[in-house]
């Protein structure tokens, strides 16, 4: 078993899981801008367009508490397969039902499926990876999703060639990884459960009381990602930036985060996840504090987005790695479930908060990020992790 754990990072299973996560990121990266553009072309009001986009995250939240029991009962392969099948069906259906209401339903299904496949994948990886390799392993996991999310929008222009082409392309990729997954032997999470933790509520309480601080990084990343994609373009437009400049800034954040995923994972394995997380959150807070004073300079913002991306792009994956250190194996399904909910809450609250700060004087906009990052860094600093 020990040898199996050590070889897992290089195994066929891990490579396939990275492929699944990449496809998930690619799907989200494609659908979010593509559907918004298509709805805009149809003359859909902006608030309905925004609501339609938010439905995906609602699907994620709805799915989260429903997945633990099936995962414990049926194992990883069936649960991940179910998530992939939902995503494939929804993606193929988008061009067949081009209406706002239908797309809301399909976006919900995509969110539900994405949460399902991520939940199964995360628990599988964290359950079998040794603690001293968790930072590196989860960084590769986060890198795979981030790379897919960054490449997804590049397929959106295919819709102007053939209206159904980007959807069918994504659907085929999803089906291919589903077929490959079905070739793997199935495994289940640890079923050694103390009697007092048989109920889901008791497991939630225990994780929240003993490892609540490990859920903060996931919230942070969801908050940042969604806010930068939703409210920052509005802020940038109101302050004289062109669309190309705005897109470049967001892309800079994503690309720089990809470049530092693996190095930060290795640093976390060496120096400790908690210390690394506090450091990157603090660096991010200082970077955005600087943006409060230099927001009118494109060059300054480009540098700030690059630095903050390098620091903060790994917060979710490092948070999951930190959580895995703090929990016994039988609580990892519950911990990963709560990490997914934490990320989704950040993804929903971020754009709402950002829309409120956009109407304030421009110098106040980036103070929202400073406030969130500094608060979470302080909470992590004050937390009392279990001793090793």
Number of strands: 0
Task: Kindly report the oligomeric state of this protein.
Answer: single chain
The SS-based structural class is mainly alpha
Topology as H/E string? Answer: HHHHHHHHHHHHHHHHH
Helix content: over 70%
The overall pLDDT average reads: 84
Give the CA-based shape.
globular
Strand content: under 5%
Uncertain ranges:
none
Distance between the termini: 22 Å
The main β sheet shows up as:
none
Number of helices: 17
Radius of gyration: 20 Å
Write up what this structure looks like:
With 388 residues, the protein is mostly helical. 77% of the residues lie in helices and 0% in strands. The chain is built from 17 helices and no strands. Helix 5 runs antiparallel to helix 6 and helix 10 packs antiparallel against helix 15 (315-326). The protein is globular. The two termini are 22 Å apart. The model has no long low-confidence stretch (mean pLDDT 84).
């Amino acid at each position: 078993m020990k040898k199996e754990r050590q070889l897992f990072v290089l195994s066929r299973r891990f490579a396939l899981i990275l492929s699944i996560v990449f496809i998930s990121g690619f799907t989200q990266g494609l659908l979010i801008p593509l559907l918004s553009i298509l709805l805009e072309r149809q003359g859909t009001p902006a608030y309905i367009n925004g609501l339609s986009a938010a439905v995906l995250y609602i699907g994620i939240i709805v799915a989260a508490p429903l997945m633990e029991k099936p995962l414990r009962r049926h194992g990883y392969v069936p649960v991940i397969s179910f998530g992939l099948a939902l995503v494939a069906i929804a993606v193929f259906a988008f061009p067949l039902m081009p209406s706002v209401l239908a797309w809301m339903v399909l976006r919900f299904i995509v969110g539900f499926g994405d949460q399902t496949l991520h939940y199964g994948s995360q628990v599988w990886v964290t359950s079998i990876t040794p603690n001293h390799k968790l930072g590196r392993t989860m960084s590769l996991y986060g890198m795979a999703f981030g790379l897919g999310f960054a490449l997804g929008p590049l397929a959106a222009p295919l819709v102007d060639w053939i209206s159904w082409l980007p959807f069918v392309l994504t659907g085929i990729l999803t089906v291919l990884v589903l077929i490959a997954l079905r070739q793997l032997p199935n495994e289940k999470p640890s079923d050694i459960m103390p009697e007092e933790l048989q109920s889901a509520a008791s497991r939630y309480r225990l994780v929240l009381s003993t490892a609540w601080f490990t859920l903060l990084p996931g919230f942070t990343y969801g908050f940042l990602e969604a806010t930068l994609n939703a409210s920052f373009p509005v802020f940038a437009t109101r302050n004289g930036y062109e669309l190309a400049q705005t897109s470049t800034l967001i892309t800079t954040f994503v690309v720089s985060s990809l470049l530092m995923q693996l190095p930060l994972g290795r640093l976390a394995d060496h120096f400790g996840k908690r210390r690394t997380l506090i450091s990157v959150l603090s660096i991010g807070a200082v970077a955005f504090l600087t943006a409060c004073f230099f927001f009118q300079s494109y060059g300054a913002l480009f540098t700030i987005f690059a630095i903050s991306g390098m620091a903060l792009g790994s917060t979710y994956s490092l948070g999951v790695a930190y959580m895995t250190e703090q929990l016994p194996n039988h609580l990892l399904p519950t911990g990963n479930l709560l990490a997914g909910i934490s990320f989704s809450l950040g993804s929903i609250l971020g754009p709402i908060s950002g829309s409120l700060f956009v109407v304030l004087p421009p110098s106040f906009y980036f103070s929202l990020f400073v406030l969130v990052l500094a608060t979470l860094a302080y909470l992590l600093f004050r937390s009392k992790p279990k001793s090793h």
